[in-house]
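Narrative summary of target 7.
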Amino acid sequence: MPIADHDEFTGEEVRLALRNPGMPLEALRRPVTPIGMHYVLVHFDVPVIDEAGHDLVIDGRVERPLTLGMDDLRARPAVSMPVVMECAGSGRAHLAPRPVSAPWHEEAVGCAEWTGTPLRPLLEEAGLLDDAVEVLFTGCDRGLDQGVEQDYQRSLPVAEALRDNVLLAYAMNGQPLPPPHGFPLRLIVPEWYGMASVKWLRSITAIPEPFDGVQQTVLYCYRRSEDDPGTPVTRKRPRALMAPPGIPEFLSRIRHVPAGPCVVVGRAWSGGTAIRRVELSADGGRTWAAARLDDPAGPHGWTGWSCAWNATEPGDHELWVCATDADGDTQPLAAADVWNQGGYGVNAVQRVRVRVD
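Modeled conformation, tokenized:
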């Protein structure tokens, strides 16, 4: 992945930003992200798929290969659950030097309610053989990345694929999946970053060795240098975001807040564990105030939070928000603390410029 040393975004980054909209941060005021406000990342093209003729094939190292149509999948037990979906590249635009890819700030996230059938019973019905070590998921989207022509593919270790919360989803917020979100079928891996939730799913293959495709071993790895073999990107790191208070200036997005009491609200989440604490600072991290936490929106949804700020001093301020999860992991204060070659997992504290009028 090329690296940009300058502050200006490249033409490639601008095109990626136009193709892949982020979630407006004011949507954090909503417990469930509307479909039209949820972030989208499409690696190649959005395929055109006839649902009536679309089959899911489960094969490879299994005793009984399966071929299932969409009606077959809908006839199986259904589960609906809110899941925070976050792109692994969220926060990349804050890095210096910056990897050249989708130039996300904080907006590559959303929390929709996904409906589908659990994957585990299907794998059990197919009968995984003892030599299966991973489960490979292949989408219908195809293109070139890192000079290699490929279908979009990702794998999970067998133990992860057999988790009860992994879904084959066909609905989003009670509606059929929109085309950019994977119509007619996609994988949902709730605890992992979004790259694991393969869209336009067409096959699930049990394999006897680790998958070494581009999206698995070249991209989506934490690497500090070109020579670093890196570690795989997996579960979401803890993060809190605020819905920027007040009203914005059109171009600069600086917020304007009237002097007096102000309640700042937002959402927080982490992959695989609960949020323990959210704190807000109005003085550049010198002092912090504890936010009040709401009940989480299910085991894989986000946690609402609110914190009072007495905005009595006129002038410019910078609000920071920081989350800590139940494992004790806390967001870093600076993006440089989590710099890596691909710009993945950049969960530094959010900073919002506010002008008290």
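The longest helix spans residues 11-19.
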